[in-house]
Known about the structure:
Layout: H1 4-24, H2 50-58, H3 62-74, H4 80-94, H5 105-111, E1 114-115, E2 124-125, H6 131-148
Antiparallel strand pairs: 1-2
Amino acid sequence: xxxxxxxxxxxxxxxxxxxxxxxxxxxxxxxxxxxxxxxxxxxxxxxxxxxxxxxxxxxxxxxxxxxxxxxxxxxxxxxxxxxxxxxxxxxxxxxxxxxxxxxxxxxxxxxxxxxxxxxxxxxxxxxxxxxxxxxxxxxxxxxxxxxxx
Length: 149
């Protein structure tokens, strides 16, 4: 006679095997919800024009600018020793990262590489631009942030 624990073990194993195909074929699309990240148009990587990126950087709000500057530092498009003090001074001036942990969603979106274009258009992702354009855009972000201090 089989023991109860062996039946239970065999049943659990069979359940896991039955669920394996479902897990293997699960969709990998990002979750939907509030926030700018869900409004980004699907653009082929590397196809975003320099004019679009530079125009968005030139018109970015301070919170967006701070977030993008953070993205540029974290992604190593800017030297952190030079750019980090600029980001800290900008954050202090704009209070986009307050000490009460209630930050600005534009800053958070910018930190992921998303930048609002304006005019009701969906935001752009710097990841959709070439590495050269991202590097140049980050330099422009740093220069613009310095000019705001």
